[in-house]
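Example protein was shown:

_____
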Amino acid sequence: MSCGEPHKTDCRDVLAEVYLYLDLECDDDRRELIREHLDECSPCLREYGIEQEVKILVARCCGAERAPDGLRERLRAKLMEFVVEAEAHEYLAE
């Protein structure tokens, strides 16, 4: 996804890292770049809001349970596969 506007950080990069941002799993410099992008890009901010709501819903349903590290890594890898696949479809559609 790209809003078509020039940004310091590309929309695709921001959306690929939105869960890392939500989970406070990226370094401070990267968080700042993502925050700046979200402040200026309405489509990405909207997508961020959807992901934030999903995270809240999952937390509410699962309580304080934490997935094992191996499962978390497999899920993160699978999500990245989906992101790459979606980007490839978007690129081919252009």
